[in-house]
User: Fold Similar to Vanillyl-alcohol oxidase acc. no. P56216 from Pyronema omphalodes.
Amino acid sequence: MASDSAAPPPLLSDDCHTGVPSRYFDQAVESRTRLHSNRTLPPSIPRQQQVPILPPDVTRETFTTAISELQNLLGNGNVEVNDKPLVDGWYMEHPNTHDAFHLVDQEDLVSSAIVYPGSTEEVSIILKWANQHLIPIYPISMGRNLGYGGAAPRLRGSVVVDLGRRMNKVLNIDGDAATCLVEPGVSYFKLYEEVQKTGLPLWIDTPDLSGGSVLGNCIDRGVIMGADCGWGKGYTPYGDHWANHCGMEVVLPNGEVLRTGMGALPGRDDADNPTWQAFQHAYGPSVDGIFSQSNFGIVTKMGMWLMPATEHQSYCISFPKDDDFEQIVEIIRPLALQRILGNIPQLRNVIQEIATTAKPRSHWFKEKGVMPRELIREIAKTLPCGDCAWVFYGTVYGPEETRNRQLEIIKKEFAKIPGSVFKLPQDLPDDHYIHSRVKINSGTPELKELDWLNWLPNAGHTFFAPITPTKGKDANIVYDIVTRLHHKWGFDCFPTWCVAGREMHFIANVIYDRGDPDAKRRVNGMMHEMIQTCAKEGYGEYRTHLLYQDVVAKTYGYGNQVLMRFNEMLKDTIDPNGILAPGRNGIWPKRLRGRGFELLGGDFEAPKAGSD
Ligand code: ADP
Assistant:
């Protein structure tokens, strides 16, 4: 999968589930060329440690026997040992062997092998095999969770179950109910293409980058970019993916297959239930939630709601002063609560106007250390949005009269901030970021957000992603902590606020050079300090990189860690052998708990203020 060749990027139409639709081919080539031109690291370096890296408590002999058994069960070609040089690749040709955006040594977060099931039955077989040999496994759908650990397992040496390669069908699109049912390997690109083929007036909801798995993003409750390059959530009125999923098929750690929601009630002659994708709650306890951001089951099918296509109008509003921030948030809240803001809008710091030009930071600033605010101001003066501090990107939906009325109110409210400037896409040049927002905010896939990664050579990124109420004072506390600590640890700060209504997801995209061990050390130090400092004020992350999952889990410590103790009780009951994704989201099974696998330390020395 990961490739460093100059061969054309893989295409969806060549039956490559990770590929790009042909209509994005040129954009993909351009993006890759730009990224590679910033690279100073070799495509791969020889492995330093004995390969494959084994999971704990498993001898090389047991591993070899178990793997050949798995090859017999699933076919030789469907099990690969991870013993080749590691290639980071790039977004459209990402690895499934390790964390491509490594924040520790490249070989530290790696699997021992990768297995490719072709059906739910084969997933069950893998789980039974894992129980028999006490080999930990880690499911991925697409493995593009870049910024949060990519395709790497939390526990090194686990066997990665790559569901996407052979389970990547859109199983159903119901045009009347506006729903779909997908397998793990369906990307937003693919779902979009399949919906287009039906000719139905339906939208998908895609995150900033569209190569992620529809199911994987939803199960991880993704919210933005993502890096998932992952950048996870979407931005239409259906932007909360988890809220718009409906019905799942899950293989439990013992290999049994469970269906959630109405799917638990078989349809006539054992067909799928006719309301499986229509009603989320069904009967009895709602169990869907325990399969998201957890390690209680492997999801093999998921229903999602599609949005009936509608007219739309995107816009942006710039605000001149850094200190306008609190007032902007106070204006946003009532507009969001009244649903006058039609989608999940973004409030972005002006530095991102610079980053989305796709020019490297060195184009503007050759020094080490944080880019000075004065310089950002000078650069911004030369860009279409001008000398401003914040830019709000939104979209309204529906017939013209509705949109006009909403825009009238939005303009009037934000005009209370002196110096704010309202612009429509036609007021901005063709290569301005807003045109990418128009597409994303109307459910059309994109690759534009990759431009971030040109900021530094060999750039990787992770996200610091706390939640705050949509209130100026709370948001300001978090913003102050994050900017102060970026300054202390020597990183440019890229704040984006994604507004859901009563709360906002704050996403600070931390960009670092993967070839610079000191930068990686500082990212780790900064992440630990941001997590702890925000937690002291009562603000917690909604999602985090594998390396910080234990510490973030610990911050949710109300009642003497009762939530974690409850999760552990579930884990030990559902997965008594502790084979499924041990340690994911801080949930360790009894067999491995307290044996030193938890990553709780923050032993990273801070540099002097602002140094690099
Ligand atoms: P994406 O490529 O969309 O970012 P991934 O496949 O990387 O999504 O999945 C994100 C995370 O969600 C993974 O690291 C994994 O822990 C979890 N996950 C993904 N797919 C499944 C699944 N089918 N069942 C259970 N957990 C999953």
Remarks:
- Residues 139-145, 163, 184, 212-213, 215-217, 219-220, 228, 230, 298-299, 581, 584 surround adenosine-5'-diphosphate (CB under 6 Å).
- Residues 321 and 389 are 5 Å apart (CA to CA).
- The chain has a mean pLDDT of 94.
